[in-house]
Design a protein that fits this description.
This protein has helices at 6-12, 43-58, 65-71, 75-78, 111-119, 124-144, 152-169, 181-199, 204-213, 223-234, 239-256; strands at 2-4, 83-87, 96-101, 104-110. It is of the alpha/beta class and 261 residues long.
């Protein structure tokens, strides 16, 4: 990975030049400058947080590494060129994001924002590891399934497959030991019903709105992503087979098979 801590280093050394970094013109979709000057009193906490996160990134191991390695044998090679920016100064709620600049994608983590998780008793480093597992899943999957479909049904199926695997693999470390019954009962049927209804839509403008809703907004409302995730988690004994068969097969199975919780 290519890790750039220059923004954080500028903050820690009281060099305000970091506020002119290109990132702060790329946080908002409209390109408006967005910078929230961080409190100097947080410097020592950020210094400790930076050291912990850099240790995680320098020796990065994804969640569910054995399963991850079985699905993506070349993951280490594929992640060599991943760009990570460690930042401060991003306004709330932008604690973690992916942005593009000069033709390259960057994973960005704001260490001031991540302090909120530490104050709540969570580990910022563990959160970064989880988020990078999610993004790494996309990178590796896109290497095997690079074609972005154009037909509406296939686009929904690709979202269920791509986001389903990313959310499943990053859900928790050691997913094979987790129990998903309550989550399945609460969310799966509703997600699949929304997916079925979306597939019946024929109006192109409405289809575009449904494609966005299938993977945006409140977490459990992302009906295509959640359908894929929960189907995969309920069939971990067949996860490699599901992956090898690809997006269209996954969508077909979701639509015709119940999930056993």
């Amino acid at each position: 990975m290519n890790i750039d801590p220059s923004i954080v280093n500028g903050y820690l050394s009281a060099d305000d030049g970091y506020a002119q970094h290109w990132l702060f013109h790329h946080i908002l979709d409209n390109g408006e400058y967005a910078f929230d000057k961080p409190d100097p009193a947080c410097r020592e906490m950020v210094r400790d947080e930076l050291a912990e996160i850099q240790r995680v990134l320098d020796g990065f191991v994804p969640y569910n590494v054995e399963l991850f390695s079985a699905l993506f044998p070349q993951w280490e090679e594929l992640l060599r060129d991943v760009n990570v920016i460690l930042s401060v100064g991003c306004p709330a709620p932008y604690d973690a994001m992916v942005r593009e600049h000069d033709g390259k994608e960057y994973m960005i983590f704001d260490l001031i924002r991540l302090l909120d998780y530490q104050r709540a008793g969570e580990s910022a480093a563990a959160l970064v590891r989880q988020m990078i597992t999610h993004e790494a899943s996309h990178i590796c999957l896109h290497a095997d399934y690079p074609a972005q479909p154009t037909a509406y049904r296939e686009r929904l199926g690709y979202i269920a497959f791509d986001e389903g695997f990313a959310h499943a693999l990053a859900f928790s470390d050691g997913i094979d030991a987790c129990g998903f019954g309550p989550m399945m009962r609460e969310h799966y049927q509703n997600s699949v019903e929304q997916l079925r209804a979306a597939l019946l839509e024929t109006d192109p403008r409405r289809q575009e709105l449904l494609l966005e809703a299938s993977n945006c907004g409140p977490y459990w409302d992302k009906f295509a992503a959640i359908s894929g995730k929960l189907y995969i988690l309920s069939h971990l004994n067949r996860i490699y087979e599901i992956y090898q068969r690809g997006p269209s097969e996954l969508l077909s199975h979701i639509l015709r098979e119940p999930v056993h919780s």
